[in-house]
Amino acid sequence: MRATVIHGPNDIRIEDVPDAVVRKPTDAVVRVVLACICGSDLWAYRGVASRQAGQRIGHEFLGVVEETGAEVTSVRPGDLVVAPFVWSDGVCDFCREGLQTSCPHGGFWGEPGADGGQGEAVRVPFADGTLVRLPPEAAGDDRLLTAMLALSDVMSTGHHAALAARADEIARTIALELGTPLKVAARVQTGLPLTVLRGYVELAARPPAEQTIGNSLVVREPVGVVGAITPWNYPLHQVIAKLAPALAAGCTVVLKPSELTPLVAYLLFDAVDEAGLPPGVLNLVPGTGPVVGEAIAAHPDIDLVSFTGSTATGRRIAHLAADRIARVALELGGKSANLVLADADLRPRSRSGWATPSSTRARPAPPGPGCWCTATGTTRRSTWSPSPAPRHGRRIAHSPLTGSPGSPWSSAASPPTWSSPTPTCRPRSRSGWATPSSTRARPAPPGPGCWCTATGTT
Question: Which helix (H) or strand (E) holds 130?
Fold first, then answer.
């Protein structure tokens, strides 16, 4: 039979491979009807994810059962079936809780020694625990079958699927409470956390093995209870970036989201409840930093405090944790310096409203600060000119920005809305780019209201 095989970055071929056959009594062979290319395939194609030369590829497919092993009872030859992007036994504790990606007896399509979904046929281990039978009438509905491919990518990651099902509601909530334009809220504020979550789901299925280094045995164990304190500018991504690795490592979590943007955390915990996570694994404690944040940092049952935010708050957390000799993980604010050399090419490279000349991209991801945004710049004195000539300093100072302030609900294409009302305009406080006190203009969410002052004359 023929199948898709990857030999390295940018090198994927269709080759003749051994036929898929039943090897164990729990196996089935499925003749593939539909398959698709997924982001995980593209990671390998671009060289971001490593693959062995000659490894199969593809993990989303629908097909018709051709043959079954003696112990398979849930499907039979002729059945139309859909396969999730992992196989699993269906009976372990993880599978019963709806997290088949963590099945200790499972695996991923295309891993060394296994068939990939992009082939004429696939050997399916643990067919009873893996395959989902579709009604016979679905075979004639091309639109339904295509939609089922998308479902096959998330159906075995309960938390991911429950969160993805709320994507539109999450995006609108972020636009409402944070002020992010709706399109950006959907693509970045919602899409990025789902990508991060899926990555950790895949890692959780491959726990690190013990290592022997010299006379020492290295074992990776859960740290225990993690106290997670997150900022307001990426309210879902920052939460997922802390919860997902903690859960993948086997830890429990106490989360305090920012009091400025707490609503999306409630949606997340609705998804957690729907996914069937046991009570007490994830815990939500909303409130202010001086009250709830300090309680978490100082609590004797918190084994590690993970905080993202200002340097001043991080210093206070480190002090509280040090008093009881607890671990901390701090991601603190900085000025993101940008070094501009004499031969820098400052010509515009993008049509994006906030991607200004390549070395001067300083606009924050709307509508607040981002840790990657260039906030300060350093250049040689000889490259700076106060004259209108386009020397570096003059060009940086006058770099055009085609985006505009506006309503987060705006769908205007030109100019795009890249900034909108923000949760706070308190000067020199939690908002690193807040305006002076004389220009405070707190927004009135939802939608446009009294925006923060964008220009000033004195």
Answer: helix 127-130
| Least-confidence region, from 9-23, 41-55, 115-129, 160-174 | 160-174
| Residues 188-201, mean pLDDT to the nearest whole number | 81
Residue at token pair 């993805």: 164
Opening angle at CA 134, ends 109 and 278, nearest 5: 65
- Tell whether pTM > 0.70: no
The residue type found at 168 is: D
Considering only residues 145 and 125, tell me which one the structure prediction assigns the higher pLDDT: 125
C-alpha distances (whole Å) from 208 to each of 211, 220, 222, 248 are 9, 7, 12, 11
Residue whose C-alpha is closest to residue 98's, from 283, 271, 280, 245 = 271
Distance, in Å, from the CA atom of 124 to the CA atom of 116, rounded to the nearest integer, reads 10
* Alpha-carbon distance values, 447 to 269, 306, 409 (Å): 25, 32, 7
pLDDT above 80: residue 132: yes
Which of 253-262, 274-283, 309-318 has the lowest average pLDDT? 274-283
Spatial distance between the Cα atoms of 136 and 389, rounded to a whole number of angstroms: 72
Residue written as tokens 């004389």?
438
How far is 88 from 258, CA to CA, in rounded Å? 38
Cα–Cα dist 121/67, whole Å? 11
CA angle centred on 86, ends 81 and 88, rounded to 5°: 85
